[in-house]
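[Automated response] Your request has been received and processed.

Submitted sequence:
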Amino acid sequence: MQLTLWRDLGAAAPLIRELPSGCLTVPCSDVPLPDLGELYFAAYPPSQGSPTVDDAIADMAATLAGTYGQLIREASCAVLSDGRPVSVVQTVLRAPWPDVQAGPFVIELFTAPTHRNQGLGRHLLQRTIVATAAVGERWLGLRVDSENHAALRVYRCLDFREWNTD
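Generated structure:
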């Protein structure tokens, strides 16, 4: 089951976690499309992600072209290690789905299996929170699988809470 979580951007901004040595953050639009697609393909199990690398590259091309909403450049970044992307967050100005609140929305946050548990996703999400708050947005939303306990721990530590439509 998918959960929609939100974070009040009026709350104190998180301190941005430092990256491991040798890593740097760049806008995801500055990463070569084939590299983005290959990471996207590798980050998800076959049953959850794109069926082929070419499909993953096409999905990343659609994301960059605005198919899922206008990306917020400062809130859509990649962590590079040795010049290759290893973690990416993509945030749109308004969620493309009618069943979620209007506002900035993280549509993707993914990390290479070989680089998980190093705080890369947390770093990117902290940057996203700061960037969306800086442009005057009131909250930030995202979706997560209710069984993804590792992601839920990170989101809850960063003050994301379930969205209630009542």
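Summary generated for your ticket: The chain is about 30% helix and 25% strand. The first strand starts at residue 2 and ends at 8.
If you did not submit this request, please reply to this message.
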